[in-house]
């Protein structure tokens, strides 16, 4: 759900306080375009851990 475009957990956020809800959606799109995955684990009141997995490049960059 948090990777959906325009998703914002805190409904009090608006243009004045920042956030359009696009950041994680864009990250997911870019990572998947490179053959990778993104996931999140969270505990209420403790925070969240994001895991990004990208494949090795078949050629030197």
From TrEMBL:
Report the residue ranges that make up the Histidine kinase domain in this protein.
1-58
Cited Pfam families: HATPase_c
Task: Give the catalysed reaction(s), semicolon-separated.
Answer: ATP + protein L-histidine = ADP + protein N-phospho-L-histidine
Q: What is its EC number?
A: 2.7.13.3
Question: Biological process GO annotation list?
Answer: phosphorelay signal transduction system
| Protein's UniProt keywords contain Transit peptide | no
Q: Which GO terms describe its molecular function?
A: protein histidine kinase activity
For the protein in the UniProt heading, the enzyme class is transferase
Q: What does the UniProt keyword field contain?
A: Kinase, Transferase, Two-component regulatory system
- Which InterPro entries does its entry note? HATPase_C_sf, HATPase_dom, His_kinase_dom, Sensor_HK_Regulatory, Sig_transdc_His_kin-like_C
Task: Please state what the protein is called.
Answer: histidine kinase
From which organism does this entry originate?
A: marine metagenome
């Amino acid at each position: 759900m948090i990777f959906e475009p325009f998703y914002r957990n805190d409904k009090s956020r608006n243009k004045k306080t920042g956030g359009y809800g696009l950041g994680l959606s864009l990250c997911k799109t870019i990572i998947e375009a490179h053959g990778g995955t993104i996931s999140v684990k969270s505990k209420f009141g403790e925070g969240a851990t994001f895991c990004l997995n990208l494949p090795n490049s078949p050629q030197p960059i």
